[in-house]
Specification:
The chain is an alpha/beta fold. The protein has eight helices and nine strands. A six-stranded mixed β-sheet has the order 2-1-3-6-5-7. Strands 4-9-8 form a three-stranded mixed β-sheet.
């Protein structure tokens, strides 16, 4: 009963990938979501260690896995009891826009919706020396509107055993016709796409690593300064 009440809530369900090394980034993202949303939202960090303790996530970390939520993101439909819609967002993001506008793009014709990037990395490493991988549909899964009822293939058993490429290339769907397209403004890739394109971006995504890492404090230039301003606003002490 309680599960159904949660699903029927008017709040927008948002799941954020959690990585211990990016706690600051996640908290700044959470604050930016609340600050800009015109609708109630319910945020759930996806913490792998918690899912492991209750027996949902049983997958050992892999060499090419750059974050602890590389695979657990695909458990969102299961966590939603395969009902309704939900949003998944990587933690290395700053939200500038009203998440309600993204939520209103839901189209029941699709199993999921995302920004369909054409990202072909030139670098071989990214943040903290993690290996950079190149594959079709790269970064598509970093921001997803998921129609959970149409994602029933994503059982814990499947997510724990499928290859990373099968998961991130959405091979669990019957075809690309099940993937709807969202405008680039909802997943702008910092230091990958033109800085001009950032001007109207509703979400800034530091996919190569962000200014919360000591050796990447200036990544994105003026966008890094914007992230620092958002961090300072989120954590400032209010005084009378």
């Amino acid at each position: 009963r309680s599960k159904i009440l949660i699903l029927m809530s008017p709040k927008i369900p948002i799941f954020i990938g959690f990585d211990e090394r990016e706690r600051v980034a996640m908290n700044v993202l959470i604050d930016s979501l609340y600050q800009n949303s015109t609708s109630p939202i319910a945020i759930t960090p996806i913490i792998s260690s918690q899912l492991e303790k209750i027996g949902i996530h049983k997958r050992a970390r892999e060499e090419k896995q750059s974050t602890s939520f590389s695979f657990t993101r695909f458990l969102v439909p299961y966590l939603m009891d395969f009902r309704d819609w939900a949003i998944f967002i990587d933690c290395d993001v700053l939200c500038r826009g009203d998440i309600s506008k993204l939520w209103n793009l839901r189209d029941s014709a699709y199993a999921l919706m995302c920004v369909k990037h054409e990202h072909k990395p030139k670098e071989v490493v990214k943040f903290l020396g993690e290996k950079q991988s190149s594959y079709p549909k790269k970064n598509w899964s970093s921001l997803m509107l998921m129609n959970c009822e149409k994602c029933k293939a994503l059982t814990p058993e499947y997510v724990n055993n499928a290859s990373g490429l099968d998961l991130h290339r959405f091979n669990w769907l019957s075809g690309d016709h099940e993937i709807g397209e969202i405008k680039e403004e909802w997943n702008y890739l910092v230091e990958v796409q033109s800085i001009e394109n950032s001007k109207n971006a509703s979400m800034l995504h530091w996919t190569l690593g962000g200014p919360w890492f000591p050796d990447q404090r200036t990544i994105g230039g003026e966008l890094a300064a914007e992230w620092y301003a958002a961090r300072d606003d989120a954590f400032k002490l209010w005084q009378k």
